[in-house]
Design brief:
The complex is a heterodimer of chains A (327) and B (79).
Chain A: H1 2-13, H2 25-44, E1 58-62, E2 67-70, H3 71-91, H4 100-120, H5 124-145, E3 154-158, E4 164-171, E5 174-183, E6 191-195, H6 205-226, H7 240-281, H8 287-317
Antiparallel strand pairs in A: 1-2, 3-6, 4-5
Chain B: H1 3-43, H2 48-78
The chains are: A mainly alpha (327), B mainly alpha (79).
Chain lengths: 327, 79
């Protein structure tokens, strides 16, 4: 350890004064202490290779109905609860001159509304409630999913194959089972964690539901704006070209559902897997910058989902001839 | 080699190929987007903010293709 310390400190200790970002003796010591603590933790509490499963794990089943409540569904409900309670708390006593939380929320909504109106023009105000709801919901659920501890506390279940050993510890009279890094052999029963919560968008059902809402509402908005003329996009007997292009348009509406849902699901799920695997490869430290990346990805995916909904709606309200490219 | 091993071999190879080949296109696409945006910023530095937002959107679309490949690879590997 001493040798390492002198190695690290030598190039910076000799210089007089300290430029921003350089290591002083004290700062260097702090880093070494952090690394030592992490090294100690890695031996005492090794990070378990996570069981990666595509479908969401059921937490409990509602008796009688037989409806399995999965951990992603619980996370969705938690997001809804958070947003509901949050909006009630913000709007409880409104002032003409906003301050504090109200000011922040008004600023955020103002930015979103300005964006919606710059993309969709006058109709932006009409599309705004749905689009902003999608954005805020996805933002909260994506960011909630990367809170440390969110997806790592749960009940231990028997693993379908493979699995880990379990170590029982007693904390304040409670018996807690902690999963060990060691994997069990082929013949023994292994254990795995079914966490209570898991980021809502890591279950394909959530993005699919949002995509269906978005695409169906696009048709509704198009019908409201253009009447029956809107459907001449899909079925047209005016000329040969319309006959051929119509079905293509219909297929592209269906493809929107797939691309919406898989983009969101893939990004969020890949993010979770990335964080879990990185934490397993190099425990505790290396995943920290990737948390920042995941914050960015969560924001970007929420933004893209909402933005595309807005753009498709704006396109549906405009008549023929002004259709942009499809994604 | 048992039949199960052969299936496992195929799965691993398939997942790797799906992700690797699927990342080529988006890689080129994101590179072109970045290059274009840098040139645009170089020509017109005042428009940096607007260009960056549009570049981000473009990158997200290009990246989505790689994400589809990733989903395919994950499904091959884990389902």
């Amino acid at each position: 350890m001493d040798e390492l310390m002198s190695d690290v400190m030598e190039p910076v200790m000799g210089e007089e004064g300290c430029l921003p970002g350089c290591l002083t003796g004290k700062g260097c010591l702090i880093y070494i202490v952090i690394i030592a603590i992490v090294a100690f933790l890695t031996t005492k509490l090794p990070v378990v290779m996570p069981e990666i499963s595509l479908p969401a794990e059921p937490v409990f089943t509602i008796p009688g109905v037989g409806f399995a409540v999965t951990n992603t569904l619980l996370a969705t409900w938690l997001t809804m609860l958070l947003l509901t309670v949050g909006s009630i708390a913000v709007t409880r006593n409104l002032n003409m001159v906003p301050s504090g939380l109200q000011n922040l929320v008004e600023w955020g909504l103002g930015v979103l509304l300005g964006l919606a109106e710059s993309v969709a023009g006058e109709r932006g105000r009409k599309f705004f409630p749905l689009v902003a709801t999608i954005f805020i919901f996805l933002l909260v659920s994506n960011w909630m999913g990367i809170v440390p501890g969110f997806a790592s506390v749960g009940l231990i279940h028997e693993a379908p194959h493979g699995g880990h050993e379990v170590h029982q510890v007693s904390v304040l009279g409670l018996n807690l089972n902690i999963l060990q890094a060691a994997e069990v052999g082929e013949d023994d029963t292994g254990w795995t964690v079914f966490s209570f919560l898991r980021s809502a968008a890591t279950d394909l059902n959530t993005p699919l539901a949002l995509a269906l809402i978005s695409v169906v509402m696009t048709q509704v908005v198009g019908y409201q704006a253009q009447g029956l003329r809107y459907f001449s996009k899909f079925i047209s007997f005016k000329d040969v070209l319309g006959l051929i292009v119509g079905p293509l348009e219909a297929v592209s509406e269906l493809a929107k559902i797939i691309s919406f849902s898989f983009r969101l699901f893939g990004n969020v799920f890949a993010g979770e897997v990335l964080l879990a695997v990185l934490a397993f490869i190099v425990p505790y430290l290396v995943s920290i910058p990737f948390f920042a990346l995941e914050l960015f990805v969560g924001l970007m995916q929420a933004f893209v989902f909402a933005m595309l909904t807005l753009v498709f709606m704006a396109m549906a309200t405009m008549g023929h001839g002004s259709e942009g490219e499809e994604h | 080699m048992a039949a199960g091993d052969l299936i496992e071999f195929g799965k691993l190879l398939g997942a790797g190929l799906a992700m690797g080949l699927g990342a080529i296109g988006p890689g080129i696409g994101i590179g072109l987007l970045g290059a274009g945006a840098m040139q645009a910023i170089g020509r017109n530095p005042e428009a940096t903010g607007q260009i960056q937002i549009n570049m981000m959107l473009g990158i997200v679309f290009a990246e989505a293709v790689a994400i589809y490949a990733l989903v395919a690879a994950l499904i091959i590997k884990f389902v």
